[in-house]
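Assess this:
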Amino acid sequence: MDKISDTPMTLGQIAAYIGGKVIGNPHISVKGLVSPEKSGEKTLSVVWEEKELGMLSAEAFLAAPEKFFTESRQGIVTEKPREAFARLLYLFKIPQSFPYGIHPSAVVSENARIADTAYVGPLCVIEENAVIHDEAILEAQVYVGARCSVGKGTHIEPMAVLYENVTIGERGLIHSGAIIGCDGFGIIPSSHPDERPQKVPQIGGVVIDDDVEIGACTTIDRGTLDDTYIGRGTKVDDHVHIAHNARIGDNCIVVAMTGIAGSAEIGEGVILAARSGVRDHVKIGNRAQVAANGGVIKDVPPGEIVSGFPARPHKEQFRAQALYLRLPELFSRIKALEKRLAESGEDSK
């Protein structure tokens, strides 16, 4: 949804914020940030593809590379429009406001410690020896288990659950419905048909470092003995599962419906695209990438791009896929050759 700011800003102020150069009058007020197809008088639209220029209103301002400007167009020159767009969204976003303090309907253990500048919303439950640090925000119906710690400035959205022994660093964002610290799936299969599988107790915790985002309905299991760990700056999408004892490095991106099995080790700056999977005890090197639907069943070297199932180097997988698509044609050619060989054999008789 396009965001219109309540407080108009000038082209010059916006250009200074994103590090751009003004074309036109820097003192003109900008009404809001909108998509090109909804542009109008004094609105600002960010463009990085030439085809979007035709959607712009003649009176709209443009934030784009210099080559996209005409003599009649005013706006802001930026050679990195995608990065500028992300910064502008922060600038025009109308922030929510939460008061300090604990809502009367919240249930807080007498042994819990809540900072004076934190907010604990309606129907939250804070168990014994939990610590909520300065400027942390817990919206409605958040559950924080015993011995948890929520870092300074971390924001937890409604109905998220933190089981016991979960530590979240500073400036984190936990989206609604995330469940952190539930039992890892430790099961010993039965050796006899009449015996039931045996559950293995999980007594570790979860440690989430600073500036981490956890998506809605994502689940992160606590470790069996050691902690499941997510590194600083990592961004995890919705509907992701991270199993017990997994370790994810700094600044990773984990996209929706990805599954990371127990004790997997993900290096720094790794990208796991949508619906990818990582087998237990596998190691993925720094800055490697797994394409959508990729299934990693063995270690991936640093910087490698893999795809397919089982995942293999992307170029190799691409060649294999191209051959696979030619199988009907190759099969027909083989059948034709077999027929010709059979006919030539009959002729020789």
Observations:
- The helical segments are 11-18, 81-92, 314-325, 327-348.
- Residues 330 and 336 are 10 Å apart (CA to CA).
- The longest helix spans residues 327-348.
